[in-house]
Write a structure and sequence with these properties.
Length: about 400
C-alpha cells in the first residue's frame, strides 16, 4: 500500500523515507466523510454519541475558571492541573504513586509514538513489536528507519530476542488491528523478560475503556507497580493513554506516563514538534474529567459498540465465512479477518471494495515488511448495525468479483 510521490522535474526529491510510506490512513479518513461510502476502515468512534452539550458546558466553564491561562502558550509538558489529574488517575489505576513529573500531555497518543521514535530510535536500531502491528506506530517510526523483531507473547518465550532492542511495543488490551486481549500470564512474562533485557516497554492503551465481555485485567504498568510499589517510579514501562476513544478524538488529548528522565527527554522532543499543546482543549478535558463525564459516557458507548460488534460478526458469518475466518473480539473496535486461502490478497481486494463503495484496511499495512496480504481489519464502532450489514454485503460482492478475476 505504498504511495508514489511525484514532483515536477528539476525540483529536489522528497526524503527517502517517503518512498516506503503509505497513505492508507489519509484514504480512510477521507472516505469516512463521503455519504455514498460505507467505511469500515478507520478506528473511529461513533460520532452520533459524542457528548457535544457536555463539551460545550465544559468549554464555557474552563474559560470562566482559567481565563487567559487557557488561551496562552503553556508549558511544553501540558496544562499543569490536567497533568496532576492524570497522575492521580494513573495512581488509582496502577496501584502505586505517580506525580505530575511522570506525566507528559500529548496531541493524542499518536504524538507520543512519534516522540518516542525521536528520543530512542537511530537508523537501523532494532525494536520489538507485537505482530501484526498498529499502522500508526509503523508510520510514526518510518522516517527513523528502525529494524524490526516480531514479539513472541508466549509465556515460555526466551529473553534473547529482546536483547539489544531499543524498546518493545505492545497494545495488550484489545489490540489494533486484531482486537485480541493478551492474557495476564503473558503480560507478566513479557515484563519479566523486559526487566532482564534492560530495555523499555511501551504499553499503548487506547482501548481499555471498551470492554464488552468481562474485565481486561491488570495492565503491564500495574503489574510492574505491584513489583515496585514504593518510591519514585523509575521502571521500564512507558504508558500511553488518550481520551479519543472514551470521550471524543477532537480534543486531541493524550498522555505519556513514565519515569521522570523519560518524560524530560520526550518533552525536549516535543518542544521542537509543536512548542506546546492546546491549553484550551486540555482545560476542557480537565473539566470533563472532574465532572465525571467520562464515567457517564463510556457505559453508553460500550452498550452500542457491543451491539455493533455482534451485528458485524453475524453478518460476516452469513456472507463472508466462506472466504474468511475471525474471532469475536472481547473489546476494542476491530475484527481481524484472515483469508481461509492464504492466496487471498487483500491489497487487491481493497480495489474491488472501493468500486463497491465500501472500505476496510488491508493487512499489509500492519506488517513492517508489507507481506501480510491475506488478512484485513474491519471496524464496527463507527456504523450502526444496519449500515454494517450493508457494508458486509458490499464486501461480499467485492470478494466475489475479486475471486472471479483472480480465482
Amino acid at each position: 500500500m505504498s504511495s508514489a510521490q511525484k514532483l515536477p522535474a528539476g525540483r529536489p526529491a522528497f526524503a527517502r523515507w517517503m518512498s516506503v510510506s503509505n497513505d492508507i490512513t489519509q484514504q480512510f479518513l477521507a472516505i469516512g466523510g463521503r455519504p455514498d461510502f460505507i467505511s469500515m476502515a478507520g478506528g473511529l468512534p461513533a460520532a452520533e454519541f459524542y457528548p457535544a452539550q457536555a463539551i460545550a458546558a465544559a468549554a464555557q466553564k474552563a474559560l470562566s475558571r482559567w481565563g487567559g491561562v487557557a488561551l496562552e502558550y503553556g508549558p511544553v509538558e501540558g496544562f499543569p492541573a490536567l497533568r496532576q489529574a492524570i497522575a492521580e488517575r494513573m495512581t488509582r489505576q496502577a496501584g502505586r504513586r505517580f506525580g505530575p513529573e511522570n506525566v507528559l500531555l500529548t496531541v493524542g497518543a499518536m504524538q507520543a509514538l512519534d516522540l518516542i521514535g525521536k528520543v530512542l530510535i537511530d537508523p537501523g536500531d532494532p525494536i520489538a513489536v507485537q505482530f501484526p502491528t498498529y499502522v500508526g506506530a509503523l508510520d510514526a517510526w518510518r522516517m527513523r528507519a528502525p529494524s524490526y523483531r516480531l514479539l513472541d507473547w508466549s509465556a515460555e518465550a526466551d529473553v534473547e530476542p529482546l536483547l539489544g532492542v531499543k524498546f518493545v511495543y505492545t497494545v495488550p488490551n484489545y489490540s489494533n488491528p486484531t482486537g485480541a486481549l493478551v492474557p495476564r500470564a503473558a503480560r507478566q512474562a513479557l515484563l519479566e523478560r523486559v526487566l532482564r533485557a534492560g530495555t523499555w516497554l511501551i504499553e499503548d492503551d487506547p482501548y481499555l475503556p471498551l470492554q464488552y465481555d468481562g474485565d481486561a485485567g491488570p495492565g503491564i504498568l500495574e503489574l510492574h507497580g505491584r513489583m515496585a510499589p514504593d518510591g519514585p517510579y523509575d521502571g521500564p514501562v512507558i504508558y500511553l493513554g488518550t481520551l479519543s476513544k472514551s470521550l471524543v478524538p477532537g480534543l486531541r488529548v493524550g498522555w505519556v506516563v513514565a519515569q521522570p528522565e523519560m518524560i524530560q527527554a520526550l518533552t525536549i522532543a516535543k518542544q521542537s514538534s509543536d512548542l506546546a499543546g492546546s491549553m484550551l482543549t486540555q482545560a476542557i478535558a480537565l473539566e470533563l474529567l472532574e465532572a465525571g463525564r467520562e464515567q457517564e459516557h463510556v457505559p453508553a458507548i460500550v452498550q452500542h459498540y457491543r451491539e455493533r460488534r455482534d451485528a458485524l460478526c453475524a453478518a460476516a458469518r452469513a456472507d463472508l465465512a466462506e472466504w474468511f475466518e475471525w474471532e469475536t473480539p472481547p473489546g476494542g473496535m476491530f475484527v481481524w479477518m484472515r483469508g481461509r486461502d492464504p492466496a487471498i490478497d487483500t491489497d487487491a481486494l481493497y480495489q474491488f471494495a472501493l468500486k463497491e463503495k465500501v472500505a476496510f484496511v488491508p493487512g499489509s499495512v500492519f506488517d513492517p515488511s508489507g507481506k501480510l496480504t491475506s488478512a484485513m481489519r474491519v471496524n464496527f464502532s463507527r456504523n450502526a448495525p444496519a449500515v454494517l450489514r450493508e457494508g458486509v454485503a458490499r464486501l461480499a460482492a467485492a470478494t466475489k468479483q475479486y475471486l472471479g478475476k483472480n480465482g
